[in-house]
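Hey,
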Amino acid sequence: MRDVRSHSPQRGSAPAISFLYTVSGTGQIRQDCDPLQLPPQSCCLVQAGACSDCGSLSPDEPWSYYYVRFTGIGVQLYAPYLLDRLCCLYPGKPKRLMEIFRILQKGDSLSPLLACSRNSLLITELLDMLLESRYKPAPAGQPEDPDILAPAYEYIRKNYASPLTVEDLARECCLSKYYFLRQFKNACGESPYQYLTRHRIDAAKLLLADTELPMNAISAKVGYAHYGNFLVHFKKLEDMTPAEYRRSKQ
């Protein structure tokens, strides 16, 4: 779980809105109605504090998700269109959505005023993406069945530390290699290799923050036989070395 808070100015008494986006696993959320399931690459928007239950669908399957809470009068303009009912959404630009979260998550070197302006623009962009996914047809090539790639997500979650190939993942979904690649790119906005790399780095971040394991051991645990390869991918995604990340969490 990642708690990414915006720096939007709070005006008046506008209540906060919470947004959840599933990275891996499947979550379940309830808001005075039947539970809503949130599989990978899906999201929902709810009134903060209105959910009576929120957690992993299965105790044996961890739910990894991004979380951000918005506030401000401007955000409320979207509420009648996005909060009229609890529903599962699939943003058409998941890669850009992930970029927005990562920008909001990083510490600000900007002045408070500039940071506030930047974050307000990013939040508006994110909400526009949700409106588009709610009221417009899915983009061409989007999987007709949102669960068509679920076996691949599950296979990566269980086997990310082992060598994986596109053929392995396509076989799990009972799809041809090239059809699987098209569907995965359309659904996730990135290749299976990029998705696997991000999953491995996320797992490494947990180990760096919660254990004292040596770097080489962590590298091996998340699927990298050579530390140098792990270092290159970690720095590319996190803009810091594994050692720097560990120090930041101490």
